[in-house]
Amino acid sequence: MHRNLERLSSGALMSGPQSGKTVEHNPMRNVAGQNYELSKELAMACDLAARPLSRIQHSSRQDICTPAMLSDVQFEIFRDFAKRYAGINIADFKKSMVSRRVRTRLKALKIETFEAYCKILRGPERDRELQQLINALTTNKTEFFREPHHFHHLAERGLKLLPMQTCRSKQLRIWSAGCSTGEEAYSIAMTLAPAFSVPANGSYRILATDIDTQVLAHASAGSYHVSSLGSVPLSQRDRYFTSSPGNPTQYAVIPPIRDRILFQKLNLHDPWPMKGRFDVVFCRNVVIYFDKETQKRLFERFADILEMGGLLYCGHSESLHGVSSRFKAIGQSIYQRTS
How far, in Å, CA of 265 to CA of 210, rounded? Predict the structure, then answer.
């Protein structure tokens, strides 16, 4: 990892805030940097849910269900983890979704009940399993060139708006925040490749981050089934992908594109260990899962880490209206930092 960071020159994209070393993520830290711990009430609930049903069959609580069902108490426990660790708000009506996704962890761990899973989250394996729980609860819907107007804007207008273009010696720095399985980051790289095909035009690097370690592994591999490439223009597919010799339905991103991107795990609610500012940030269809106050804090931090005049691309259902006054709208869900 350190070698990869050192390769990114003129400041690695991510480093320790003081030591210059890569910061390792601490899954026990909440947004305030304090130790992650359940509230007393939820801890008691978790303890209750972890006990065998035979010991609680006379309980007066009405939300303790059969072993095969997710109780209201257990649902609150999982929602609390998601909120405290990842800032994700899970609505009241999402109980069936949470039940379905957490069941994948029960199957992986070869356990039969949610109460047994709660016990694991309170035991010595808690740190490691917490990451797996967040992986299960996060939504990773993405595709190549999703919301294509953003990529058209970046290629045709965005680069001309960036102040760094007056200084060709500067490396363009882009951040894909919430990159999922990598399609967004590779779409950005393919969009920029023609403009930087001549060395005199400078160069670019992309930092792509996500909280989900499983999707990051997929993204780093840069290999996709042909069915995933339907939104990639045929000319770009021929230029930037190669089919696997042993599996003609599997396509790999070519090294010159893949090498432009550093995939890294990052919880957006933790301190950001990046050095320097970015010229462009893509954070699309991510903040819709956060409450309004969390959104305000996040966009303040995006403004701080963007160069003045830098560009922020948001999701189609996301808006900075009433959330941040440090950007101006310059297109459909496209913003430019002004202060």
Answer: 5
Q: How far is CA 273 from the centre of its chain?
A: 15
To the nearest 10 degrees (0 to 180), the angle between helices 126-137 and 72-86 is 90
Q: Which three-class secondary structure state does DSSP give residue 165?
A: helix
Work out the number of other CB atoms within 10 angstroms of the CB of residue 20: 12
The Cβ of residue 168 has, within 10 Å, a number of other Cβ atoms equal to 11
How many CB atoms neighbour CB 48 within 10 A? 19
pLDDT at 98 over 90: yes
The DSSP result for 102-142, as a single string, is HHHHHHHHT---HHHHHHHHTSTTHHHHHHHHHHHHS----
Instruction: Give Dmax over CA atoms of the chain in angstroms.
Output: 76
Average pLDDT score over residue span 50-75: 56
What's the burial of 253, exposed, middle or buried (CB within 10 Å: 0-12/13-18/19+)?
A: buried
- Please count the helices (runs of H) and the strands (runs of E) in the chain: 14, 10
Question: Residue type at 316?
Answer: H
Structure tokens at 33: 């940097």
Residue 320 CA to residue 327 CA, distance in Å, equals: 8
Active-site residues, by number, are: 101, 210
Phi and psi of 311, rounded to 5°? -110, 140
H/E run at residue 60: none
**Predicted model pTM:** 0.74
d(CA 183, CA 145): 7
DSSP tag of 157: I
Q: How many residues does the chain have?
A: 339
- Distance separating alpha carbons of residues 233 and 11, to the nearest angstrom: 34
Per residue in 187-216, pLDDT (tens digit) is 999 999 999 988 777 899 999 999 999 999
Q: What is the DSSP code (8-state) at residue 36?
A: P
Q: What is the distance between the alpha carbons of residues 282 and 186, in angstroms, rounded to a whole number?
A: 12
